[in-house]
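Quarterly update from the structural biology core.
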Amino acid sequence: MKILNEFFYLRKSDRKVILTLLCVIAIALGVIFLTGGENSESNALVAADSVPAKRTTRDSFHQKSYSERTKTVYVRTKVIYRDTAFSRGKALTDVEHDSVVAHYQVKLKAGEHIVLNTADTTQLKMVPGIGSYFARKVVQYGQRLGGYVSVDQLDEIENFPLDAKDYLVIENAQPHKLNVNTLSLNDLKKHPYINFYQARAITDYRRLHGPLKSLADLRLSKDFPPEAIARLTPYVVY
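Predicted structure, tokenized:
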């Protein structure tokens, strides 16, 4: 009672300050009570964190009932290499999964493979270690070669991540072949395995000796050591 009497004897400005502080304290306590101390742990994923994901078609998604679309299911884990709003180890609903697949690139797991000659840039970016830059380089170099005949040809791409080769395979390689007896010097040297001097050696041989029957015909040329002949052989016809 004494405190209350003293309060009313304070100056009006002092009373306003005290009442304002009491209101701020009351509001802060109310916010804490209403939020209930929610877990403030960050849900952001860092690179190489994994979240459950599964593949589903748009038609099958819309054919499901609302309860089926929103139920939580655990599915095979794939690796996602970007930040996402889902916490580590949390099972995704179908709706959440569609959002992840639409915005984040899923990576292959160990033991999974992609056929090198038929893969486009989107598929290549599923390989750990390959992003947009190397995906474009792989496709462009394959086009220049006329198709890959060995995964080891990727070593010829500067700074290519060698571990990525474990996820790539060659199946039924059918490279485009060059007719070394009809193509001009300029056309021959467009191939990555034929430089200007090698193209000139081919055209000189044709001019002096007639059509080539085999690349072995060029074995006496200093421009065609055995390793050059071996790697070019799958790409030529006569």
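The first strand starts at residue 50 and ends at 52.
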